[in-house]
Amino acid sequence: MALLQPADGLPPVTTSTEALAEVAAAFAGGTGPVAMDAERASGFRYSQRAYLVQLRRAGAGSALVDPIPLHGEFAELADVLDGPEWVLHAASQDLSCLAELGLRPASLFDTELAGRLAGLPRVGLGPMVESLLGLSLEKGHGAADWSRRPLPEDWLVYAALDVEVLLELRDVLTGMLDTHGKLEWARQEFEAVRTAPPAAPRAEPWRRTSGIHKVRKPRPLAAVRELWHARDTLAAERDIAPGRVLPDSAIVDAAVRNPDSAQSLAELPVFRGRSQRRLARYWFDALRRAAELPEAELPRGSAPTDGPPPVSRWADRDPDAAARLTAARAALTEVSDQHDVPVENLLQPDLLRRMCWTPPSDGDVRGALSAGGARPWQVELLTPLLEPVLDTR
């Protein structure tokens, strides 16, 4: 059955502190978990702030809150929401922007993560709702520019429907996980997501420029780096997604072609556009800075890392480590099949690689797993399998 309209009608968008106080009072009078969602403007804006927050709770109904005119005045709602379990889909995507508003869960249920642990083949919200609830959600506007004002009504309907299904979906998934003895696994995973620290900034984020594999020498790599930082500065000032300020392809093209003047740069594809021609001197100054760098300040060909080398090099550099990784992956695949849990949810791939490259010197696999961030259920499940694989004595 197609789900086209919210059951209680489309709630008004909350834009004032008075209306937000009413929402807080309604949710304080509700019962049970709170379904939560947030819409950002990724791909359009530089910031990852929330441009709409959706909530639903039994006895309170649904609410749509516009954070922009409220200027962060969420303290009253935050107090109400500090206690009930929050239900989100792919929670790690939304928790940070909600935290910017002072909204943080005391406990969490992640329907996407629950679906993975339950062994569902497709864990997008739409497929899960269809397979478990018999409802179909129309393809929505998740990738739309949610910074737009006013928000179109069909976008608001989409946003309201996203939280309308979460509470029922949570109940079905809870039953499935309990039946298969995975409910405690899920609780530990949810808590790990809830308490995860903010991601540390990447050491050299410019190396993620799409197409950078075409740039091999240090001087052109420096040009990519300077253009990337110049773009990032401009994007932050204007609150525009970096790719809309200057595409990655244009950065790589300019670094490879190495134009000798702003005029020559403006003749390249993308740069010859009207908006880019106005910025030709700005972009060329970045290229000039790269050209004038002393050799000692040029970037290396590959990013520095504190981890093991790429797996493709293991066989040559350390055949024993390569053999350990092969055996460990085979063991995890067997457990994955047995418990119907994706391999990547059994253990973080990076932790597995690190342990296979440098096994714990004292043989304490259990301790190494725990120190590496594995949850207790993972430690108990995998320690007996990994101990013989990682035994270097």
TrEMBL record:
InterPro entries: 3'-5'_exonuclease_dom, Exo_C, HRDC-like_sf, HRDC_dom, HRDC_dom_sf, RNase_D-like, RNaseH-like_sf, RNaseH_sf
EC number(s) recorded for this UniProt protein: 3.1.13.5
UniProt-recorded name of the protein: Ribonuclease D
Gene3D superfamilies given in the database record: HRDC domain, Ribonuclease H-like superfamily/Ribonuclease H
Record's keyword terms, sorted: Hydrolase
Record domain HRDC: where: 217-297
Keyword hit for Transcription: no
Pfam family, one: HRDC
GO MF annotation list: ribonuclease D activity
Enzyme class: hydrolase
